[in-house]
Amino acid sequence: MSNELLVLIVLLVTFAAGVFVLKLPSGVALALSALLGAIAGGEGIPIRHLVEGSIAFLDPILIVFTAMVFMKVVNATGALASINFAIITRMHKYPTLLIILMVFFIMFPGMLTGISSTCILTTGALVAPALLAMGMPIPAVGALLAMSAVFGMIAPPINLPVMIIGGGVDMPYIGFEKPLILATFPAAIITALYFRIRYLRKFDIAQVLAKLPPTVLPKYGYKMFIPILFVIGMMIATRVLAKYIPDIGIPLIFLIGALLGFGTGEKFKLDKMIKEALHDSLPILAILVGVGMFVQIMTLTGVRGFIATSLLDLPQGLLYPAIAIIMPAFGSAFTASSVFGVPLVYAFLGTNEIVVTSALTLIAGVGDLMPPPLLLPIFAGQIVGEKNNFTILKYCAVPIILTLTIGVLMIMYAREIGAFL
Amino acid sequence: MKRHVLVAIFLLLSVVTLTGIASADFLRMYTADIVHPSDAATKKSSLSEYCPSLKGTSADTPVYYFDSKRPGATVLVLGGTHPNEAAGFMAALLLTENITVDSGKFIIIPQACGSGFTCTDPLEGLPDFYTIKTTNGTRKFRFGSRVSNPLDQWPDPLVYMHYPSGQSLSGFETRNLNRSYPGRIDGNFSEQAGYAILELIKKEHVDVAFDLHEAAPEIPIINAIITHERCKDIGASAILELELNSLTYALEISPKNFHGLSHREWGDSSSVQPFLMETSNPIQGRLRGKTNAELVTGGVDKFYAQAVKSAKFRITYDSANGYPLKVRVARHIAGIQAILTAYNETFPDKKIYFSNIPSYDDINTKGIGNFLK
Description:
The structure holds 2 protein chains of 2 kinds.
Chain A: H1 3-21, H2 26-40, H3 47-54, H4 58-77, H5 79-91, H6 95-113, H7 116-133, H8 138-154, H9 160-169, H10 177-199, H11 205-211, H12 217-220, H13 226-240, H14 250-259, H15 270-301, H16 303-313, H17 316-329, H18 333-347, H19 353-365, H20 375-384, H21 389-395, H22 397-412, H23 414-420
Chain B: H1 3-28, E1 43-46, E2 62-67, E3 74-78, H2 86-98, E4 100-103, E5 105-109, E6 129-134, E7 137-142, E8 159-161, E9 168-170, H3 189-203, E10 208-212, E11 224-227, H4 232-244, E12 250-253, H5 262-269, E13 273-277, H6 293-298, H7 302-310, H8 325-346, E14 353-355, H9 360-366
Parallel strand pairs in B: 3-5, 3-10, 10-13, 11-12
Antiparallel strand pairs in B: 1-2, 2-5, 4-14, 6-7, 8-9, 11-13
């Protein structure tokens, strides 16, 4: 047995034992497995590497925390309830159209920022209560949010995993719109229809409205949507009008959005919102810290190279299913794109690199759903109130298979698709 | 005291201790590497001479001048544009510590991205230092990051819009010196560094400029000389000469729609003849195994040997000997010599002559350390 395989086993067994036997939070289990993995790899306790890995995701950590503060404020002002009331009263007669529009609405922040979690924490959080009120099961709503977030992250105009791969292969971010639309829009529509047919039963509008908190729109008027409009407006403006409007960063946009909540609706205490946001997001933040340490140790000890080389070593027939399994198994779209995306683009040179890269990012995007981090199921679980994140993942199974199939087919027929587009 | 308070205090103290230990490690990277310029050095300045706002920052990196005071071309050599590409820095250092200029002028910046030498890239598990044995003892050098330190330039935007083209790149690239050209005086930290280098090229009337790089073994442009379309004849001539010495290089012309890179923007913004050279560096590769200082200097990696065998795609890696630093540095030096020979043939009225630089074979047989002070 090679040393890298031994370290990989130590990493995975420690994580599993930490979560399932010792009942540690996932973030702590990841940190512990990184520590033991380093020791097994003959690195002793590499404090510099563990600390460096722990801050690798500092920017996403800030985004998640500030988005949570923003959503707490929007909820407290009553804007969230009012939006859901409006959605249901106006669209309840057209549930199929409603659910398709909701999926694209959830995807929207991800399309603009390239970050999947923003979909769940913003637009996802806005529509989740409406879906729940219409009788969709809690884990199904969580799964719909999580899948939409994956599609939003990959859909154009902004796809950060493509840019990460592009940085590695010196490929400018040009000409990706059509392949990315092909990769995501059909999958998003089919996913919406799947959830509509399978989980959204007939509902009595009167009963649904009775379950929802009352709208406070008549009391405060449209000013209560100022924070939401500001956040969505800034996300669009910093992309579309980049030459004129400086990119102040997503965390600052969320914080300003939260501050704009004062006086727009019901009263709230900001310190209470911040405390609640920190309390709710802490497990997720810990996972981001732990994942950073875990990946750093995988790289340091050679496990990352072992996995990448083993994947590329497979015969061509097995390579496609292996890509669909191993890329998501890395548990992070960005990491999988960086590690596997670059060599795989070279492995498929001569087909159509733009289509291949788009497809690889779609497959890598599924990684944000996967354990150990389970990032999107955890975010979605927070929003819908589902404690078992694996249940959300289970409800994602069919759309995941669909997504991976689309990704693999795009790679297999990249040349033909490229010629068609 | 309640149990959870005690646990919290314990955890806080642990974090403070661990952070303190790590901080000491991180701070060591702020100690500048020692450079012993050759006796031919006529001036030492720094990048802020060309962009005053860099004064006192980690981007204010030393610039060494070797002026023969005799007519001839002015040559600029940049090492360390990407500090994790050790052969670029080491080739520039070897020139700095040995060169004698007989006609014309050499300007050398061994660590072009000074900021990148103060940190390493998270998630990459990179060593902070590596050592080279010299005749006077062992010298230690910082490894560094591909991009500027986030402590100098943070946060990254989600998408980096290159100035002035508006080209979109990953946000991380906003700290990449070789995506920042032509730069701007009031731009971000990396854009200011890029601006300073281009100002140097213009003010010093640089005729030929080299940007020394390395890349992962799976990148197709390995062992390539990349140049602006204006300079393809000189590049082709140099490659022929290198072929005669059994050294294989590919000539690549800078893509016109890929902005921010030295071979594109230097050539577009000035009359300089820009050349960027790449060698194969296993520690940059995605397939590499154990990541440590030995991989920087030895360049031996079992997974790259395995990947070459599987032949899924082109990988530039010598399964028998790896790609040691001395070979990579020797290639850069040989490339510079060949290009300048070709330049002299093309511009006979503005020749650059220099000496005391070891040959490819000398570096390979005797090692780099033999040529460092």
